[in-house]
Amino acid sequence: MQTAKPKFIAILGGEGSGKTTQVKRLRERFPDAELVITREPGGSPYGEVIRNIILKHEHSGQASGYTQFGLFWAARHDHMKNIVIPALERGSHVVTDRFDCCSYAYQIFGQETGTLKDLFWQVRNVFLGDRKPDMYVFFDVTPKVGLARVASRQLQLIDSNHFDERKIDFHERIRAGYRDFLSRIDEPHAIIDADKPLVEVSAEFDKIISDVFSK
User: 41-79 burial, b for 16+ CB within 10 Å, e for fewer?
Assistant: First the structure.
């Protein structure tokens, strides 16, 4: 029986960081936890519709940082309202693969739309209020390593999107964006060196999640 306060944990990382693989294994690692695993963009039924527009529409690769910013926050609000908040209120931990930090890293830094920075913090406070994550976990991968993993994944016919296909300087900016985001927030965060071997990354991630769940 779960006795600790339900926690909201956001997982972040660049392309090929391995974070999604780690999130998918959480149910095996913590079989007794009341746990909801979700993702962004998407997570909710309508959010998944927006996800397809963001990632898979034939014109999505040409969308500006402003357009992507608006779409991500629209999907995020629906995700919070229909998935995250109800799960927390019924006593379940929630782990989301990507969250608000990704809008900051991808649109403001990756797509070089710095004029959105002040608006980001304003929208974050309005849309999230007191429902900001209890912990952010950043899988910090160097773009050279991450993109090599993405290339291998594509050879195995696993879906990719237009963000995967951008040049390495885009991914360098994303990494800098994540670090900048973490330096500015009040919420706790942990950084995992995702260049390390899988077994080491998994062990570190397990310990972080276990510690958060127990508090």
Answer: bbbbebbeebbebbbeeeebeebebebbbbbbbbbbbbb
Confidence of residue 157 (pLDDT cuts 50, 70, 90): very low
Q: Give the predicted TM-score (pTM) of the model.
A: 0.90
8-214 CATH pick, 3.40.47.40, 3.90.1030.10, 3.40.50.300, 3.90.190.10: 3.40.50.300
CA dist 149 and 147 (Å) reads 5
Distance of CA 110 to the CA centre of its chain: 15
Residues 86-113 pLDDT 10s: 999 999 999 999 999 999 999 999 999 9
Tokens found for residue 178: 């994540």
Instruction: Give the H/E segment covering residue 110.
Output: none
- The total of other beta-carbon atoms located within 10 Å of residue 200's CB is 13
Angstrom CA distances, 74 to 5, 78, 108, 197, stand at 28, 7, 17, 36
Q: At 174, which helix (H) or strand (E)?
A: helix 168-184
Q: Using one digit for the tens of pLDDT, what is the confidence trace for 29-65?
A: 999 999 999 999 999 999 999 999 998 888 877 889 9
Distance of CA 214 to the CA centre of its chain: 22
